[in-house]
Amino acid sequence: MLDSTGTDQLTRLREQTPARLARVHALGLFSEPDAEFDRFASALARESGTDEALAMVNFLGDRQYFAGLWVPPSARDTVAMSRVMSLEHGWCPEVVDRGKALPLYDVCLSPRFRTNEVANEFGIRTYMGAPLFDPQDPTLPIGTVCVIGKQPRPKEDGEQMLAFIKERAQQAQFLLNSRVHEQLL
Questions:
Q1: Residues 67-96: pLDDT tens digits?
Q2: What is the pLDDT of residue 77?
Q3: How far is residue 37's CA from residue 59's CA, in Å, rounded to a whole number?
Q4: What is the pLDDT of residues 99-115, one digit of tens each?
Q5: What pTM did the predictor assign?
Q6: 45: number of Cβ within 10 Å
Q7: Beta strands in 2-155 (DSSP E)
Q8: Residue 52: left (phi > 0), alpha (psi -120 to 50), or beta?
Q9: CB 43: neighbour CB atoms within 10 A?
Q10: Residue 3: per-residue pLDDT
Q11: What is d(CA 125, CA 104) in angstroms, rounded to the nearest whole number?
């Protein structure tokens, strides 16, 4: 995906992959489901205001890994959700590249985002995500917290979605920072 300067977003993400991958592996967040982040994702989905929300605590390296994942029971038979996703899919790579939150109340209204494989394959219509940063290098985004849903939200929800996901990202960042602090003790 090209950004406004014409730079290929995936090229930039891949350039940072070695540093990001080393950090998420060092934090133990790139190969096994994490019970604490699963609980966080469950609460994130419930509190999001998005019907039948799916929520993730996602870390990026050479791929996306959902260390925390919530799929509502009603969707578990129809959504074949893996904990691994290519960097080419979804909107979290955009959030990591930007280093700031992204609320999309209706992804189909954006020419840039409506062609995303996740929108087409899974019928996702709404997204909100915010970055998580390496606790030891706060300039390096290493992941996201995000909520997706199959129903678009009203345009008026944009500011509320932004405030909600930024607040929840701060909470997840606190959990992440606490882990690093505990590892250093």
A1: 999 998 877 766 667 899 988 889 999 999
A2: 67
A3: 11
A4: 999 999 999 998 888 88
A5: 0.89
A6: 21
A7: 54-60, 64-70, 84-85, 102-104, 126-134, 137-149
A8: left
A9: 13
A10: 46
A11: 8
Tally of CB atoms within 10 A around 142 = 26
Q: Do residues 44 and 145 lie in contact, with contact meaning Cβ atoms separated by under 8 Å? A: yes
At position 64, the amino acid (one-letter code) is Q
Q: Confirm if 109 and 73 have CB atoms less than 8 A apart.
A: no
The amino acid occupying position 74 is S
| Contacts of residue 91, Cβ cutoff 8 Å, sequence gap at least 6 | 102, 104, 107, 113, 116, 118, 127, 129, 146
Q: What is the pLDDT of residues 16-75, one digit of tens each?
A: 778 888 889 888 888 899 999 999 999 999 999 988 899 999 999 889 999 999 998 877
Q: Which long-range contacts (CB under 8 A, 24 or more apart) does 117-122 make?
A: 117/88, 117/89, 117/90, 118/89, 118/90, 118/91, 118/148, 122/79, 122/150
Q: How far apart are CA 36 and CA 176, in angstroms?
A: 10
Side chain identity at residue 85, one-letter code: M
CA 23 to chain CA centroid, Å, is: 17
Mean pLDDT over residues 132-160, rounded? 94
